[in-house]
Specification:
Layout lengths: L1 H22 L27 H4 L47 E9 L9 H11 L9 E8 L9 H9 L7 E6 L21 H17 L3 E7 L4 E3 L3 H17 L6 E5 L7 E4 H12 L14 H9 L4 H7 L3 E5 L4 E3 L41 E2 L10 H16 L4 E5 L2 E4 L7 H4 L1 H4 L30
Parallel strand pairs: 1-2, 1-4, 2-3, 6-8
Antiparallel strand pairs: 4-7, 5-9, 6-7, 8-10, 11-12
Helix pairs in contact: 5-7, 6-10
Length: 466
């Protein structure tokens, strides 16, 4: 019997060896599956490049000398250290059975100003006035407000917004998240890192943004828009944003396309749209920027670190994004009302006009280059599909839809371009209602609600050739 068992063992070994010689590999039993698949799978949205493409380590094309630092735009907030206990996605809204039920999430970190200004509720009003009352075909839109410095005061802008909107069941969803309170966290200073040129406040802010992104990321199924709490959406801005997302995807879907790492349509940390699958890796980088061995300035301001990560400056980000690159929209889609910074920045910060060209106060690979794309509204435009392709037909459809949804502020001004301006004519009354509701003293303003005395300024496109 023992001899027979040995014979069977020898025959089995010979079979495996013969299989290896023929096929070049040995079939082995698979690993035991993890307890949950979510922790084991790399999820790439349908619009993203194939996984083997997205993870290719490759230098992005045409790297510019972007180390000349532009003036600082306002970053979102000063908040508790990320060493505090992490607020989980399940804590966002106990009534929700699913965390990633939002097609697109606007993430807004907020901090009370010492002088009492309520910018947050203005920002929320500007979004709620324009976002659709019913979910678009792609899915629900959500606004996630993140309180980075929780306070017991019922008069804080966050508390006021939560009181007004927490029980709201209309679309879009508004969700409120508090960072751990001071009594629950350890006061730990974020240590200085190599090449440190930043302050403790700068390092702490970067850590706080990382925590906010990690906390809110599970909400988003497809896209995440990073915002600041004192930038208001320009009239027609939602229509422009939908157009931008569709066009960037159409350019990427064509065989000549390379995909995008972020869409850029504002300044500082405001107006950065990411794919949902890219939020967590971005947060991981910000949690410890020095982990990127080729990052000579890990203590740089968080908006500078964000740009360098998204454009593929570091080997870690090139490994994640492959050839994907930042796509800049020609126009800025927000107007800035914050006269008091959450982190003590100068009051002379950039105040761009609605739909003005994105060029000032931005690095080379996140601003729009008119000389390279004079007849387009996205940059880069070197992957523009052929005019007779299905991708080009989709771009034309998106342009027609943008004009229809733009409430009179959009017009097609070329085969590859839509021009945006302040609505006028018959459409002006309905289109301007969102901005008018935000202005102090206007008849449309809600009594007792926060308001701004700053009227949005718009780029005058009347002199442009059609």
């Amino acid at each position: 019997m023992q001899a027979l068992k040995k014979l069977f063992a020898i025959l089995a070994a010979a079979t495996v060896l013969l299989t290896w010689r023929i096929s070049g590999k040995v079939e082995v039993p698979g690993r035991r599956p993890p307890r949950t698949l979510r922790g084991a799978l790399v999820v790439v949205p349908p619009e993203a490049p194939p996984l083997d493409h997205a993870l290719t380590v490759q230098q992005p094309p045409a790297l510019h000398d972007d180390e000349a630092v532009p003036p600082r735009a306002e970053a979102p907030s000063e908040a508790p250290s990320s060493t505090a206990p992490l607020v989980t996605a399940a804590a966002l809204d106990p009534g929700d059975a699913h965390s990633s039920d939002c097609w697109l999430v606007f993430g807004i970190p907020t901090l009370p100003r010492s002088t009492g200004e309520d910018y947050l509720n203005l920002t929320l009003e500007s979004l709620l006035c324009q976002l659709p009352a019913s979910p678009p075909p792609e899915g629900r839109i959500c606004i996630a407000v993140y309180d980075v410095r929780p306070t017991a005061s019922a008069g804080s802008p966050f508390a006021r917004a939560e009181q007004l909107l927490r029980s709201r069941r209309a679309h879009p969803d508004v969700r409120f998240v508090r960072a751990p309170s001071a009594s629950q966290q350890r006061e730990v200073e974020v240590p200085a890192r190599r090449g440190s040129g930043g302050t403790a406040k700068t390092r702490r802010q970067t850590s706080d943004v990382a925590t906010m992104l990690r906390t809110l990321a599970p909400l988003a199924r497809s896209y995440f828009v990073l915002m600041e709490d004192d930038w208001l959406l320009c009239e027609g801005g939602w229509a422009a944003l939908r157009y931008l997302v569709g066009k960037a995807n159409a350019y990427s879907a064509h065989p000549t396309g390379v995909g995008w790492s972020a869409l850029r349509f504002s300044y500082g940390l405001n107006g950065i749209l990411l794919r949902a699958a890219d939020v967590a890796p971005f947060a991981t980088f910000l949690r410890d920027p020095a982990a990127a061995a080729d990052n000579a300035l890990p203590d740089a301001p968080v908006d500078h670190l964000a740009y360098r990560w998204l454009r593929g400056k570091y080997e870690l980000s090139r490994a994640h994004f492959g050839r994907r690159r930042i796509v800049a929209f020609r126009h800025t889609l927000f107007w800035h009302v914050g006269g008091t910074s959450a982190v003590g920045n100068s009051k002379s910060r950039h105040q761009p006009r609605c739909y003005t060209q994105q060029s000032e106060w931005l690095f080379e690979q996140e601003k729009f280059h008119d000389a390279q794309c004079p007849d387009d509204d996205v940059w880069p435009c070197d992957t523009r599909p052929p005019a007779n392709s299905s991708a080009a037909a989709e771009v034309r459809r998106l342009a027609a839809a943008a004009v229809e949804r733009g409430a009179g502020g959009a017009r097609v001004c070329g085969p590859w371009r839509v021009c945006w301006q302040r609505p006028d004519g018959e459409a002006s009354g309905a289109a301007r209602r969102c901005a008018r509701r935000l202005l102090c003293g206007d008849v449309a303003a809600t009594p007792g609600a926060p308001c701004t005395s700053m009227t949005p300024e718009y780029r005058d496109w009347s002199a442009e050739a059609t």
